[in-house]
Amino acid sequence: MKTALIVTLGNRDIQINEEKFSLLPDTVKPLFKKNNDADKFFVINKEHELCSFFDISQILFEQHLSTISPYLEFPLIQSAFDEITKQVNSDDIQLYLFATHQNDKQDCYYVAKIIQQCWKKSNTPEIVEITINPTKISELSAYLFTKFQEIKNNSNKVFVENAGGTPQMRTATHFAGLFQGFTFYNINARTGKTEQESYEALERLILKQIVEKMLYVYDYEGIRNLPLSQEIKDHCTRALEQYNLVNNANQGLKINKQ
Fold this sequence. Notes:
The protein is of the alpha/beta class.
């Protein structure tokens, strides 16, 4: 099975450095603008007077792909990819591009289409369309959880790079990835620095609250099904055996009294 890299796409996932930008035809240059986070790079122009971000990305894909493809860079994806290749071979990595496609002017569907055609570092990326509102955390979390499970079931390890997309989308990826054993990468858009994020502390806090409530009702069997250490599960097994022993003894006493 492959190692999965899940990427949530945004408006900075496709870039061109200023030297290569100067080589573009004059008809194409207005479709890009300076990247506010890295002024030596250009990104798709989401502030164009006549066209939306979605419209421009569609134009670039359908009309100018062969012109721009030699110059494109994908620094956010590349940063996470470089970290993963320290552990596995690049040929074993499968990219999953999560892109909004809900008839909104900021949709990244054609950004995904461009990357799918131009990415040559590993296998051809797969596109996962997000057709629901990316600002609704509850709906988005449920949707991503289902998709993440599908990817997890076909992968030996899963990494997530969620620098792109709405803030709600980033939050939803964290919710959907809890207790899944995923590795998250946080990428600083200005410096390009990549940091590995861990949610173990949050997971322990959530589990602690769940276990406390389950202990209150003596649900040792349920606790054994939680993602806990084997030592704790063994304690629960012994407690369950003792609980059943005492419970059976009490039932026997009731029968004898009758």
